[in-house]
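Title: Prediction job returns without error message
Component: structure pipeline
Severity: low
Priority: P3
Assignee: unassigned

Description:
Job completed but the reporter wants confirmation the result is attached to the right record. Sequence as submitted:
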Amino acid sequence: MAITSHENDLITRVEGDAPLGQMLRQHYWMPAAPSDALEAGGKPFRLRMFGKDYVLFRNPQGEVGVLDEACPHRLASLALARNEPEGLQCIYHGWRFDTKGNVVDVPNADARVREQFCKNVRFGKYKARELGGIAWVWLGQGEIEPPMPELPFTELPKNQRFVTSVEVPTNWLQGVEATMDTSHLTFLHSSTIQIQGGTRKHVLGEGSAKLEFEEKPYGFRYAAIRNVKASGQRYVRVNNFVMPWYSVICASDDMGPGTVFMSVPVDDVTHRAWFVHFNVHGPLGTTMHTLSNDLLNWPPLPPGGPRDNWGQDRGMMQRGHFSGFPQHLATEDFAMFMSQGRIANRADEQLCDADGAIVRLRRVILERVQRYQQSEGKVGYNPIDYKAIKSVAKVISESEDWRAVS
């Protein structure tokens, strides 16, 4: 799929009146912070999405709310506010706001008109909920909310999932595309795959895979099929892309953990990369994704910048490490995103047949945002059976159909 500069803007830009940003705010719940990062009665969490600033907080009773960061009175930051039972209290002049965005007190206003004044204050009203160890926010308008994303991890007990995230200095789409790019496993992540083992070792030495797709209401499901050398069998990785940024990635082994990746826009040139590692079969235990106690800054970004090739360790490459980024599998991906520029110019790409899933991904997003524009924002919510979304990796015989693999 050749893509123009205009189309590239349509599927990447999210700030202000950008159609994509408008659609995402109205039609989707956004992962905002790991639930464990919000302390009851603790400091508000500064949240930036789509180029706008908010605060997310848990009141002393345990309820989660999201507000505009700027107090509507004199625009002081509510990240500095007191977190009290009645809500956040701006420390500048004492104005109070509850978790639903209601202005509940303006103590420096005339007491005779205070109640009516509170009702007339213009202030954003948003919604926040918790599901699957994540605090989610809806930044849209109106009474009809979009459905919550009941993904494979959301109903699991806490010991079967682990949630981390990190802010990455590139556009959100570069993160999503990497999760649907099967051929880079063979190269970029080859050293990590060798160390970890599992069925993913079958991607090593097989730079190309046969790609087959199934269209789905939520996006698409696809299989990357590789021959297992000298065995008459095939290694099949079946993964799912779920609008707008969910990548449901298969477990490396039958009873092992899978991953849901999310790349959520902070602004046009920054995104927050989310990693939800989960095991539907039992306790998650220790994995590459559970090694940090900083839920808002893991996995690690590359240790350098463009002037030193993002901190790539060439000495380690000489000793056998393929990429020179040994910190984490995700660090390798982040280095690639950052090397593409803050917003990749897809009009300059020269794609090949291995990029079928990336082409499909872009087409799905482009078609959705164009429909949104044509309908003037009136496109309804598509019902999605999230629980039917399954991603698997298996070695199968040549006669087996990957669509029946589960």
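Comment from assignee: result matches the submitted record. The two ends are 31 Å apart (CA to CA).
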